[in-house]
Amino acid sequence: MKIGFVGTGVMGRSMAGHLMDGGHELTVYNRTRSKAQELLDRGAGWADTPAGAARDADVVMTIVGFPADVEEVYFGEKGILPEAPDGCVLVDMTTSRPDLAVRIAEEAGTRGITTLDAPVSGGDVGAREARLSIMVGGPEATFVRIRPLFELMGRNIVHQGPAGSGQHTKMCNQIAIAAGMLGVCEAVSYARTAGLDPETVLESIGSGAAASWSLSNLAPRMIAGNFDPGFYVKHFIKDLSIALESAQAMGLRTPGLALAKQLYEELAAAGGEDNGTQALYKLYMT
Amino acid sequence: MKIGFVGTGVMGRSMAGHLMDGGHELTVYNRTRSKAQELLDRGAGWADTPAGAARDADVVMTIVGFPADVEEVYFGEKGILPEAPDGCVLVDMTTSRPDLAVRIAEEAGTRGITTLDAPVSGGDVGAREARLSIMVGGPEATFVRIRPLFELMGRNIVHQGPAGSGQHTKMCNQIAIAAGMLGVCEAVSYARTAGLDPETVLESIGSGAAASWSLSNLAPRMIAGNFDPGFYVKHFIKDLSIALESAQAMGLRTPGLALAKQLYEELAAAGGEDNGTQALYKLYMT
Hints:
Two copies of one chain form a homodimer.
Chain A: E1 2-6, H1 10-21, E2 25-29, H2 37-41, E3 45-46, H3 50-54, E4 59-62, H4 67-75, E5 89-92, H5 98-109, E6 114-117, E7 120-121, H6 123-128, E8 132-137, H7 140-153, E9 154-161, H8 165-193, H9 198-205, H10 213-217, H11 219-224, H12 233-249, H13 255-272, H14 280-284
Parallel strand pairs in A: 1-2, 1-4, 2-3, 4-5, 5-6, 8-9
Antiparallel strand pairs in A: 7-8
Helix pairs in contact in A: 8-12, 8-13, 12-13
């Protein structure tokens, strides 16, 4: 297929590469062209605008930074929507606002174009190893049609419902992580403050009812003082902000999420925004 | 060995049974005698007081309800400490206050008696199947000596440090669970409120960075409206209260724990104290 691919950052670059490995013809656009160079060297075409990447495409995939970037890429002067050809499918894989996903679907629908929202989890390693979890919202038939492309990039690919459902599901993922991270930070800092050896504590608590991915994977980094980004604090704050706004719009009470967002903002204000999410631990040990 | 065993509730009954299976001679005491009947029928001796269970014992094990019960059982008029013979080892397996464990160790020490604090996790099922995690504080040599008894009751048996360290480790376990439960409740209630199918959402988020024991084991019960106790809300509140007091005494900030305790107290006030901990979900969906 002819695929327009917008956004060749750390995630997008790996994902686009897997599509090329699958034999698809890519035209890429990125704000900073140098980040697309590897793909261009492998034979991808270059477009100077999102619109240019969409022209003649069977499918356009986007994975950019913030919801404002998604708006610009779809609705902007040089955006995708005015140029996307009839019958093409637009797939936004950015973690973005559920209501924006619905708005893109509605706008596109007036022109007979179908869309999917398909945010991912699994991080840069998951993207590189084509092991992403992909959470998809949009029409079932469109999902079925695009699924072979998703399978080049991920393993756990689930259709969650109509437009916006992929984004909502990603929010559930981030909400579960957010409050859970407080528990992990507080357990590790309690252990250290009580004079225990935190690694020995993990031997006791790491495999029972307290077990979690964060406890197994991030607590050891906290203990070692390794705050390098797996997932950036600044990106997590973006996600938690979207989640909290979305929850509030639905009238849902989420005090754990609200507290986590507040603490992460405190961490960012103290200079931690380019750390990994496990750096929340620093807030407890100061 | 001659073992005095105090506390034959749901947990203690199974644990005492495993000690008898291991060929040890038990004398049991429980406030409500009927709860010990099964053990008496199997040949355990009966004592009318904790002191009576301690007399002539090589080892005394206790697993009762609240820290106040531990105090009564050890320091009370008919308590263990005045009666425990020289050279005997006292092991409290109740989840209790770390500072109380230290106090018991100090009092016993003046009489040449050694103690361990050895709270467990794994619940009634873990107790029944001898698969408890046992977190032990006290002298290393005493731990080594008692370890064969622990091995009859559990699998993950770790010496965590001096007196109080077992209790501190259990607090780390409960702290990690507490805030994590908020994340699970909020993720599931977000999913439902957003019109998603929560079970399908779990397919997407259950095995990645949001993965946890609570998400895998308790979220399905929340979704099914099953609030039966695995672990009672009222007991969890006890643990969170101990953890919060202990954290505060150390000058440690634990906002996630404080929030969880507050929400669980709200749930108890609304009549949920005999539910399982997953019933926190009800607070979100009302």
